[in-house]
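ARCHIVE CARD
Drawer: 12
Card no.: 0347
Subject: one protein chain, sequence and derived structure
Cross-reference: see card 0346
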Amino acid sequence: MSARLIDGKAAAARVLTEVATQVERLKAQGIEPALAVVLVGDDPASHVYVRNKVRSAGETGIRSLERRLPAETSAEALLAVIAELNADPLVNGILVQLPLPGHIDETRVLQAIDPHKDVDGFHSENVGGLSQGRPVLTPCTPAGCMRLLRDTLGDLSGKHAVVIGRSNIVGKPMAALLLAANCTVSVLHSRSRDAQALSRQADIVVAAIGRPRMIGADWIKPGAVVIDVGINRIEEDGRNRLVGDVDFDAVLPVASAITPVPGGVGPMTIALLMHNTVTAARQQHGQESV
C-alpha cells in the first residue's frame, strides 16, 4: 500500500482563493491590503522567492511594494527603510527577505519590524504570543503545515507528533502550534538519544532539519502522516534536483500520507504569507481575524 500524496499546490490554491475573497471584502470597505517586501543584495534564491511572493500578492489583489537595496547597504540604512514602512499606515505587512548580507545583524532587523506588521511572525512579541496561545501573526511555514495536517486528519487532539528540528523559523513554532492543537509533542534534534525509536512512535512526523533524505522508513510508524519541510538541492545522475529531508521513495510504502518535495509544504508558505497580510490588515482596522 502506498501513502496518499498531500497536494500542497491544491491546498495553497484554496488558501489563496480564501484570501482573494477577503481582499475583495476589505476593498469594498475602502481598505486595500498592502505588503512591503525588502530585499538586500543579489542572492539568486532570494530573488526567486521575492518574485513568487509578489506574483501571489498580485493574484490575490494585495498591493505589493518592493524595496530592493544593494548588498553593501548598511544596517542603519536598512533600519531607516523599516522605520519608514512601520510609519506608513497604508502598509499592512512588512517582510525582510532572508538571508541578509553578513555585515547586517538579522535579529536586530527583525526586531525593528512593527510586530503588528510582522507577517513572517519572527518578532519576539509574536514568538512569545504564540508560545502563550495568544492570537498573533504566526510563521508561515509551520502555519501551512498545520493547514495540511488538518486537511488530512481533521481533529489533531491526542495525536503524538514528532518535530525533527528545533529552528526558530520552523521547529519551535511548529511544536507550539501542535501543542495548541492538543497534540502530544516531541522535538528531536542533533543531541536527541534514540531519535529513530522516538520518531517511530509518532502519528505525525514533521521533518525540518535541512539534511537531504535523512529520514528513512525506519523512522516512520506504519500509517503515520509525514510532513516534509526540507528543500535541499542535490546533484544526482548529472542533474540538479530538489529533495526533502525525508527519503520519499523509502517512506512512501510505510506512511498513510506524505507531502512531496517539491509541491508539498513550499506552496503553502507563500499562501500563508498572503493570509497573514490580510489578517494584519484586518487587525490594524479593528476587525477580528477570520
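Annotation on reverse: Residues 40 and 100 are 6 Å apart (CA to CA). The chain has a mean pLDDT of 96.
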